[in-house]
Amino acid sequence: MAIIANYIIDETGEVTLVLHAKLTSLPTPDNASPELVSSTANPDQSLKDIEARIQVSAKHLRLASPVFDRQLTGSFNEAQNLQRTGKVDITVEGWDLEALLILLRIIHGRNHRVPHFVPLSLCARIAVLVDYYACQEAMQVHLRLWKSHLETQIPTGYNATETLEWIWVSYFFDMSRVFDQVTLLAIRHGDEHMESTEFPVKASIMEAINTHREKSIDNVLNLIARWRDGLRQGLFGCTFECRCDDLGALEQSLFTANLYNPPTTPFTGWSFDSLFTHVKTFLKPSSRCNLLSYLNHDKCDAIPKIVQEVETLSSEMQGLDLTTFK
Ligand SMILES: [Zn+2]
Prior knowledge:
This is BTB domain-containing protein. The chain is an alpha/beta fold and about 325 residues long.
């Protein structure tokens, strides 16, 4: 049986939003069923079935959100129940409870329980609700504040979960510079096909990230293959000895890096950055070029030239342009 947690945002409110969720902990309710009292006294990390019941006002919901306005007027069951009995339960599923409470408190003017700043992850979840309920105007002041706070926290390192949150919030808040930076992080460091199930990031954005990521990895593998094939076929290297040294060193390095058999699309477990890191550790043999002749040495010294070519690819990498997805 679900633990019932009641939240009263407007004690005269006619609408109860009902959210079922599985949570390890939940925002402090205004009152709750006894199971919750005992479970909060002995906190554990197991998931509990929660039925959150949030009492709110139809007028505030309708003013803030055209989605609620449609639901509470016209021919919807909810609207008819409200007219007939003067109250109504509306089931809302799939939302984050903490984010939903913050959104509802703001649109009811209950600002004393709204945090001044919210962390990235919570901000991303609130933005999902603002987007769905189209209540940007009612949330405007807080959104502006949170955006300015986010702008001071732009990431430089990669973390798959956080990067996806950043991609979503930078799109939502129209932060083009941040969007460029965080999509570049995803393209450069992502080590698997990326999908956004939690956030409504446009499919075209995820597709562009995945395409650019795979292309960047493909470019590195192709240039290594070009050197390897050239040496194997006797086309690269100025002399037999020069070629043997370079090919031997390259084969050993590829074996050590687990790249002897190159990975294939979608390159799970590999990123441009992990490849680059391996390439930089490839051991360079001392040159056995025949420097006394007029032979061309453009195709000699495979390892340093491979490193140089990957460095060039690295310096040319770019994030996505937000304006093309708006
Ligand atoms: Zn040579």
